[in-house]
Specification:
Shape: extended
Number of strands: 18
CATH architecture of the largest domain: Sandwich
Radius of gyration: 27 Å
Helix content: 10-25%
CATH topology of the largest domain: Immunoglobulin-like
Structural class: alpha+beta
Order of helices and strands: HEEEEEEEEEEEEEEEEEE
Oligomer: single chain
Distance between the termini: 105 Å
Strand order of the largest sheet: 1-7-3-4
CATH class of the largest domain: Mainly Beta
């Protein structure tokens, strides 16, 4: 009767060594992949933040938060920016810095309404808002679609197609839940540029008034500090500051 031959100690040690080496190679490859992915996300986030900073730099002093605005006769206030961040809107009386309650707010459109007692009065509205990722470029695929990178997509701001050396805005497109943009009237190979809001990479712009020695103030001054904060890999880790002064 034949008996099966077992492993010798040397064979067992060699087998264990092979498994350890294989696991170490796999772990190293995975670690390198994670590091590379994180670096690419950081580079994309930095690029987005720089674009947002250029936008903020181009805006007039009075159109970035905190804003001094005048409520209309029905108490409505139209802010200069859209896509407000939930929970960040605050209305103050510029004379005494006291908080003023507002009745409704549309985060997407940047509008709110205060009570009738404050109608027609000047108020300070502080808020944070987001800006779309700009100039993401794609060539139309054979099925007349493109795949947006920053998913899930919150809102499309604008879609352009390259027409010679110019960009022509499109209105005929359809967005799927997976971030696929269908462009039925375009040909495969055409260049498309999209400005849109996405969930994975997202910026947040906030501001404050600055007084003497650059100290934060609640009431209006002639200097503001704006910060563009860019989210990547699950946290707010990138911020670029900008100082603006009111031009007399």
């Amino acid at each position: 009767m034949n008996q099966g031959r077992g492993f010798t100690l040397i064979e067992l040690m060699i087998s264990i060594a092979i498994v350890v080496i294989t696991l170490s190679i796999a772990t190293s490859a995975f670690t390198n992949f994670v590091a590379l992915s994180r670096a690419l996300r950081y580079e994309r986030s930095l690029n987005n933040a720089e674009h947002q900073l250029e936008y903020i730099r181009s805006q007039p002093f009075g159109s970035v938060p905190p804003q001094v605005v005048q409520a209309k006769s029905d108490g409505t206030i139209h802010l200069s920016q859209r896509h407000l961040v939930e929970g960040t809107v605050e209305v103050l009386n510029p004379k005494n810095g006291r908080e003023v309650r507002f009745e409704t707010v549309s985060l997407k459109d940047g509008t709110l309404r205060v009570n009738s007692a404050m109608a027609g009065k000047k108020l300070v509205v502080d808020y944070q808002f987001t800006l779309p990722d700009r100039n993401e470029s794609h060539f139309v695929r054979d099925d007349r679609t493109i795949q947006l990178q920053n998913r899930p997509v919150i809102a499309i701001d604008a879609v352009f197609v390259a027409d010679g050396e110019k960009l022509r805005e499109l209105s005929d497109y359809e967005l799927s839940d997976e971030g696929v943009l269908t462009l039925p009237k375009l040909r495969p190979g055409q260049l498309v540029v999209v400005d849109y809001l996405g969930e994975e990479y997202q910026n947040r712009i906030e501001g404050e008034f600055l007084g003497p020695r650059l100290r934060a103030r609640l009431l209006p001054t002639e200097t503001k500090r704006l910060v563009v904060g860019e989210k990547y890999s699950g946290g707010w880790r990138l911020s670029l500051p900008l100082f603006k002064e009111q031009i007399k």
